[in-house]
Specification:
195 residues; mainly alpha; 4 helices; rod-shaped
Length: 195
Amino acid sequence: MAAAQERIKAITNEYIAMTGPKLGSAQLMNQIEQMDVSSLLVPPSSFTPAIVQRRQTLANVSTPYLERRFTQRVYSVLLAMPVAGGVPTILWASEFWSASFAIPVALLGLLFGVRHISGAWEKGYKKWWRDYDRIQRGLSHDIRKVVDQTLEMRLRTIPRIALEESNRLVSQQGATIQELAKEAADAKEELDRHR
């Protein structure tokens, strides 16, 4: 980008030299001189606010949701485990069920509890990754916006100002020529009346 900046400065200076000293406005010359080709085109500090904002979104919204969902499911299963394991045990102890039926039912209840926790974790995990991908797309958009603004400010401003100054000068010269043409026509009319 430094080479591009240097080339734009050279082309703009050539254009100003070609069009004459009237175009070399103080604003344009000042902006050309302020173009520093040795500095980075996009300083790393310009990306910091976007990155910090997106990280905070991930840390303050998505991650607590995942933690809360998982914790709720673990507590609900921990509360249900005594029921899932205790009811078959009580029915076995009361001799309503045989041990060959009560133990598998208790284990099945515990297995469903673990599966419930695992399913909640998977759903929360997938949602967290969707949020992460969405935040990454937003960050990419923010970074692209910063780069475009910097390109506009550091590369495109000088030629645009040079063209605006040229257009202003051309319209000013055109207005002067129209005034002179009108004065010449009025003078010719005046001369023709006196003859």
